[in-house]
Amino acid sequence: MSKNATAASFTEDVINSDKIVLVDFWAEWCGPCRMVSPILDEIGAEYADKLEIVKVNVDEEPHLAAEYQITGIPAMKVFQNGKIIREMVGAKPKPALLADLEGLI
Amino acid sequence: MREVIIVGSGPAGYTAAIYTARAGLKPLMIASSVEPGGELMKTTEVENFPGFPNGLMGPDLMYAMQEQAERFGTEVLMDDVIEVELDGDVKKVKTGSGETYEARSVILATGAAYRELGLPREKELSGHGVSWCATCDGFFFREKTIAVVGGGDSAMEEATFLTRFADKVYLIHRRDSFKASKTMVDRVLQNPKIEVLYNSAVAEIKGETKVEGVVLENTVDGSKRDLELSGLFIAIGSDPRVGLVQGKLELSEDHFIKVDGRSSKTSIPGVFACGDVIDPTYRQAITAAGSGCVAALDAEHYLTA
How much is the pTM? Predict the structure, then answer.
């Protein structure tokens, strides 16, 4: 199951994680976010050994959204060893998201 | 094999589903995995759909249409059509998850996709200040200066909506008057946070990692000037989604699916099209819904003939 990160847990959940972490910045009022969220959960479950999905609610965590310069959601940032190694913007079908993650999972 | 497959899930698709379902045809709707509900899912208040005197939210209207379609036996699949075979008596529809569905008829209601400005930095800065969805992204521009490009109803709606967040909204328009409806234009002109820049086009988007401004070109005298911005919302219309049927169905000169007169009949028997993908002119939720009804009745006639 995907985790929800807060500003307090972000370092532990994302930055210091041993796995590759996909952070999904989302909000309740964002229709495309609600569509892409279950797809990310599926991908997280299928590739659980390699990838972790972490969600950040931008309403509840405006500082994280600002720190990562989010100006549109859904925004997905892939972290490895604390660094962003890939970024995706906008809701996409599962095959397209898997293609975006190619080489990582 | 099924009687009818509906591709698309906007007002046209759902109306076709409601009608064919009530006719006992057990339609399968392939609604898209990430954009079910179509364009109205990205709007806020819909004030001109008949029957709702106090208006309603675009997404709520679409959820209601889905509920109504399912009530009569429509099967709604959250998947994407990636290929169609339309020739012959058995039509085949292949989806992103690898399934192939067969039906005696197909109703295409694939709608239209946002048009891009076609500027070099536009794609790279998408999600970094360039946006096509004010309701999705407006939130991130609190107390910022931003701009909307366009002159139609959707540009007016976005500009008005964005004043909830932004301190200042420029409305950039190529001409000296708007083609949007008078109600929407009046709302824009009366809004103290909106400044209209007529006869102006975006010539360049500036910014390394995020939008920092644009170069505006005067469409009358060609003069250029800089405008500082944090966000650029593009609302310059849309193009029909005909990728699936390119080379398979006859298209009109302006690349809409060609239909026979007032009907929904395409160049292949048993294949019908409705909504924004056939409509270069009106493109309203209610006209799309009407057109979806036409397609359902045409399909029903075809199947029982």
Answer: 0.83
